[in-house]
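Single-chain item
Fold in token form
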Amino acid sequence: MKPKLSLVLIICVTTFIGSVQAVSDMHQYNNEQEESLRMYAPLDTSPEGIRNFLQDVYNRRDYVDVLPNNMTHLLQFLEHGKKTHQTRGYAKSVIKLFSNKIKAVQYINAYTFSLMLSEFPDLLGEHFLHKRESALDKHKDTINSILYSTFLSKYDYFKKNPQEFFDSLSMEILNTIENDLPIIHEDISCDELRQAIVRFLEIALGKLIWNPEEHEKIWESVKTISKQLESLMECNIINDANDLDDLYWSLIHRFCFFLEIASPELPVEFYEKMKNDLATQQLLLLELEEQEELIETKGNYLMQAILQGQAKKQAAEMGIVLR
């Protein structure tokens, strides 16, 4: 009887330990899921929400695994800035915040980058208008209304006590526009914000990557990004053709690097399509003049990379490895 009891006891203990371990594993799994979801959760733009984002999401080491495929937090910060009429200084601080973080990522999904870039004209364009509406401009009608109604209703008081009248009037106006006082003064110039944006784009462009299995989308993605960069010139976010030229070169160098490492996985038709487009389409990406006449053009540089990639692909099909 005793051996049987011992066996039963062992089975019970083993089962109990297994159950405890399963509960522990499930608890750990739930915590990991909760932490993962937090990194994708929409941004709470309250002061406490932003503080929590910086402490609990932005500071996490694995947030660099989220950013390459999801830049919604950056866009949400900029959306908040637009809705609350924040300054260029605010926009620069947001761009710098994410510039420093993407320095740590290994790659950036080209389609995620393009999606983000498509929002820039709307979210940042107003900072570069030739005459940007200020906070005081927005309250012009309100201030006029206060002045008119106050003088109309308290004119006698004004004649008897002008100093007290104006003190009271000034306080009423200040109380009305109190929420917008922090943004009345622009604290940085257009050029300072512009250069922060250009630096951010340079870093991101240098880390773009495409999926070789989606070969029909890759070249279209490159052309789309080049046009989106061009649109930044149209809305004055970029105002120097040299900056646009630098960004184009960054895009081409990264794309050519992709062709170099992915050439065996890309079909010959992929290369033929690009060669045909280069011969028949007018792309500012390739037509923007170089800074010096003796510099190899972007079009020629790209064509050489295409020809080399196609040669590697064709050689691989014949069992030849080219270096």
About this structure: The two ends are 76 Å apart (CA to CA). The longest strand covers residues 108-109. Residues 181-185 have pLDDT under 50 and may be disordered.
